[in-house]
Amino acid sequence: MLLRLFLLFLFCLHAVSVEARCRSVDYRDHLTPAQKQQFEAAVARIPYGEGNHWIATKGARTLHILGTMHSGDRRMSPIVQRLKPIIESADALLLEVSSYKSEQAFEDRQMFRKYMLLPKGQSLRRLMSAAMWGELAVKLQVLGMSPAELDRLQPWFASELLDRVSCVVNMPLYRGKGLDDRIETVARRARVPIGSLETVGQSFGALMAMPKRDHVRLIELELARQRTGQITFNKLDDAYFEEALGQIIVMSRWSLYTDYKASRAELDRLHNSLIGSMLNRRNRNWVPVILRTKGNTLVIAVGAAHLPGREGILNLLRQQGYTLQRAPF
Question: 4, 266, 31: which is closest to 116 by C-alpha?
Answer without folding.
Answer: 4
